[in-house]
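Good day; I would like, with your permission, to put a structural problem before you. What I wish to show you is a protein chain and, alongside it, a tokenised description of its three-dimensional fold. Please examine both parts with care and let me know of anything in them that strikes you as inconsistent. Thank you for your consideration; the sequence and its tokens are set out here:

***
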Amino acid sequence: EVQLVESGGGSVQAGGSLRLSCVVSVYAYSSYCMGWFRQAPGKEREGVAAIDSVGVISYADSVRGRFTISKDNAKNTWYLQMTSLKSEDTAMYYCAANFDKPCSREMDNWGKGTQVTISS
């Protein structure tokens, strides 16, 4: 069973930065998509960023230019560097992954989430 564990959430002021990390227990796939999603209270879950095994990266319009997704294969970890944070970035952030499948809104594997709270 694949396990994903997020860390790095917290509370910061608007304009600040945070780096989220996600460690995946299994990384023995040649093809994968790893992504970050978020869900704010009363809102639908939205995709934030994703990176696949060939290095294709995508971002939501709302975070492009402020967030950066990256991965460290040696550590089975991928990251979401968040800068210039806004109050509207407040949400529970989840990492998710598909293996041997393309990126999707409905990923097969999910972490439990880490809370990000931005105060203005």
User: Anything to note?
Assistant: Residues 48 and 82 are 11 Å apart (CA to CA). The chain is about 0% helix and 50% strand. The longest strand covers residues 91-99. The mean pLDDT is 94.
